[in-house]
Each structure stands twice: as structure tokens, then as C-alpha cells.
Amino acid sequence: MTQKKAGVFVSLKKHGSLRGCIGTIAPVTENIAREILRNAVSSGTEDPRFPPVTQKELEELEYSVDVLAEPEPIKYMTDLDVKRYGVIVISGRKRGLLLPNLEGVDTVEQQVAIAKKKAGIYDNETFTMERFEVVRHK
Hints:
Layout: E1 8-14, E2 17-23, H1 32-45, E3 61-68, E4 72-74, E5 86-91, E6 94-98, H2 108-119, E7 128-132, E8 134-137
Antiparallel strand pairs: 1-2, 1-3, 3-8, 4-7, 5-6, 5-7
């Protein structure tokens, strides 16, 4: 963790529901350990979908860390598997990412649609895709 660099996503759940998730597609710090620390703090304090985590909540949180492998370009949705691969969708400067093996995401079509929505990519816009694998730590 201190010798390699990688993108990392840190997810926080409270009673089984998402409470925060922030990550980096590509590394922005000197190693994976620092990337985890940076994104863990950001997940609890900077996810715009949620208010900052309070000290009282800390004991109720479950944490997971996804270390991303290098993304690879793909052309077809048939190159995806929602359990194995995460997806990155790209249209111009817009990018959206969805991690693999998420509860409630059962089809590739759902996975890509959610990633497009996160990126603000409309159905009439052209986009490219990349896939990646993760090592998930809970």
C-alpha cells in the first residue's frame, strides 16, 4: 500500500444504506495508503449528497475500500460484467464511474445508465467506455 499508486474509492454505509462515497479514478497522492486516507476523510465530509458525518455516527459506520486496477477501453456493453467490472463512461469532459458488484445493480444496462447519469451524459450524446476491476476491502 505504500509502494504502489492506484485510484481508490472509499464507501461509507450506515445501517446498510450509503452514507458517503468519494474516490479517485487515477491516483492523486504518492501511494495507495495516502489515497485511502484522503478519500476516507472526503467520503465523510465532502460527498455532496449527504451532510458531513458526525462524531456520534462513527461507531455505526461500515467502511469499504475499492482499489482500482488500470482501466481499459472497451467498445461494447457485452465486454462488461456487473459483478466483475466497474465502468467509466466518458463524453468530452464528462466522466462517470460506477463500481462493480453493487447491491441493486443487476444488469450492464443499469450499470451504464447510472454511470451516465452521474456524469450528466444524456441519452442522445455519444460516449466511450472503460472497464476496470477492483480489489475490495471491507
